[in-house]
Amino acid sequence: MNQLQKEILELKNEKNAIILAHNYQTPEIQEIADFLGDSLELCLKSSQIKDADLVIFCGVDFMAETAFILNPDKKILLPDVSAECPMAHMLPAKEVREYKRRYPDAAVVLYVNTMAEAKAEADILCTSANAVPVVESLPQERILFGPDMNLASYVAQKVDKEIIPIPEGGHCYVHKMFQPTDIMVMKKKYPEAEVLVHPECNPELQEIANQVLSTGGMVNYVASSPRKIFLIGTEVDMVTRLLRENPDKTIIPLLSEAICENMKLHTLEKVKNSLLNGEFQVTVDPEIADQARKAVERMLALSR
Ligand code: 13P
Ligand code: SF4
Question: How far apart are the CA of 24 and the centre of ligand 1, in A?
Answer without folding.
Answer: 8
